[in-house]
Amino acid sequence: MTDPLLILAAGVIIVVGGIIGLKLHPFLALLLGAFVVALMTPASAIEQFALAKGTAPAAALALARKSIGERIATEFGNTCGKIGILIAMAAIIGKCMLESGAAERIIRSMLRLTGIEKAPIAFLVSSFFLGIPVFFDTVLFLMMPLAKAMTIRIGKNYLLLVLCIMAGAAMANSLVPPAPGPLFLVGEMHIPIGLMMVGGTIVGLFTITAGYFFALWANKKWPIPLRDSLDAKLEDIKAIAARETHHLPALGLSLLPVLIPLVFICADTALTALATPGKPLTSSPFLNQFLSLVKFFGDKNIAIVTGGIAALLILARQKKDSKESLTAFVQAALMSGGGIILITAAGGAFGGMLQQTGISARIADMTREYQMALIPMAFFIAAVVRTAQGSATVALITASGILSGMASNAHLEFHPLYLGLAIGCGSKLVPWMNDAGFWIICKLSNLTEQEALKTISPLLVVMGLTGLVVIMIAAQLFPLV
Fold first, then answer.
1. Does 367 fall in a domain?
2. Is residue 328 part of a domain?
3. Does residue 435 lie within any of the structural domains?
4. What is the pLDDT of residues 155-192, one digit of tens each?
5. What sections of the protein cross the membrane (predicted)?
6. How far apart are CA 346 and CA 96, in angstroms?
């Protein structure tokens, strides 16, 4: 019973069966799944997993000797450390933007530019280009309040807007540097970063187009209404939508909670790309100090806290004639955000326990001698690893590690770029309950687990497969060698 595939199957049955069959709360089902997976994983597999990651032998042995509870808590804490502040502050930004009317002001301006019919396309394209410099989950946090306000404004198409946001952010995250996965991939496979950016953007635009058509179909087949939530009550959003425009904050002011994190994170990304380790960027001490300040605010946690402060100031300005305290608004936001943090961290713990089984190495061994064309093979390896353990970044790293030797083969009939793009598209398949991003989108959008599994998961499958077809055609027509 120590085969990683059997352990994976047991974990899947417990989590999916617990949530859908037994109606367990996702937090409990994911922790139970993580406990069973950890219990079934032998110490030797944990040690091998740690060594494969480059951990020192003594540290790998120490990890293998940790108790099950300690290992689960460590992965839970690691996930919480990555997303805890982001989710809490994003919940505050979302609540403040809705309550102050900032989201409504942005939506009215967007509708003037695009019209009602093209609003979903605006969400799709905006999310894709936001997803290039900004982390996937940050895009969701910034865009979801706008989707709720837009739904109230046009009275329909909530699922369509949610899927458009998901489609744009997800594809940019795995195809276009400087997102972390593609950055690792271009280094491992020796692909010029500029070529990957251009190729990833072109393939990404094809995939999000396919995603848009799927979203249109899904929205007609399973129309899902905007629902009440602790931080965004429908009656409050409707009351804001009925306000006169002159009672709403100015557009420039309304954009600040979104633009501040975006500008700082983009600036930090650009400076990191331009920097040479150990060397200052310029010869001017003053300019170097200024750039250090930009990098300080460019940290994703600090950037989103700064955006949160801007959102609170806008809300305070709009409520200056009201006796309502800001504490009540923040409390409602944090109650909602706290639930998302717990479920997402439990999902991270479950995914972390699956990774410690050695599932990625097991899949690598299974596919190493698989005689098939290289591009579909790259796609297949990344897809299986992603589905098995939940992380698109881990799937990218695993698949690029397996195929990096083939990518440098002088007899390859096409540029390694196409292998890298195939890995990026494969890493999108298939998001489900072992994926922290799955829970973030579920809880931010108020979709049930079943609704997410029949809309979001197929959406990414459609986009991933579209990308594979586009890549194979492009490799034939434009081999670039």
1. no
2. yes
3. no
4. 788 899 999 989 988 888 788 876 667 767 777 677 88
5. 6-22, 27-46, 121-146, 158-176, 196-217, 253-276, 296-316, 328-350, 370-388, 459-478
6. 27
